[in-house]
Amino acid sequence: xxxxxxxxxxxxxxxxxxxxxxxxxxxxxxxxxxxxxxxxxxxxxxxxxxxxxxxxxxxxxxxxxxxxxxxxxxxxxxxxxxxxxxxxxxxxxxxxxxxxxxxxxxxxxxxxxxxxxxxxxxxxxxxxxxxxxxxxxxxxxxxxxxxxxxxxxxxxxxxxxxxxxxxxxxxxxxxxxxxxxxxxxxxxxxxxxxxxxxxxxxxxxxxxxxxxxxxxxxxxxxxxxxxxxxxxxxxxxxxxxxxxxxxxxxxxxxxxxxxxx
Length: 261
Description:
mainly alpha; Helicase, Ruva Protein, domain 3; Recoverin, domain 1; 3 domains; two-stranded antiparallel sheet; 13 helices; elongated; DCN-prot; ubiquitin conjugating enzyme binding
């Protein structure tokens, strides 16, 4: 019980004294009921048969994969998000345990796997569903899973495209249709990992032209442009269905290269 707070230790002892349950079952009931002894006891008596079977089969009575980890990071008073949410302070603790910087692509992959709807937040449903789909239970397993997916992004274009498209919805304000250019650039740096020769020049162009926002259509076509167009622009079709922003970027780059020749 060393990892429990004094209050949690008291709750555990009271629950066991009241129900005569074993420690593992008592822990599961209390964690499923936010350490409220009376509610946990009601839960225990309503589900005692199921809890006993789960203990025999899995060694984790009543617990969903990842529930204990969720409780570790959720409900931080500094976040003020209400019950059953991991907020920015909880995410900071999570990244510390995963040994990841906030700008590491694996952090975005985590949000994608969890189908998170809000930046720097996870609901309990998102977290538990994600852990169930990943079939993992520990922080070390999570770290390994994210590392595996990150490596796959280098070769699996389908997954990489899904992550890229997720990033736009995740990164923009919920009620807006566009993403601020500074935010888009931050996400592009996370996603690209210096993958594309033309990206640095495209970033410079956006900053010089003081481009304010990136629409979803432009976001998606920037990916297609960087994936398909040669660094020398030799296969760029001026009559193709590219957005005006990319047509203007190509003109800008051609003029710059002609002046330097």
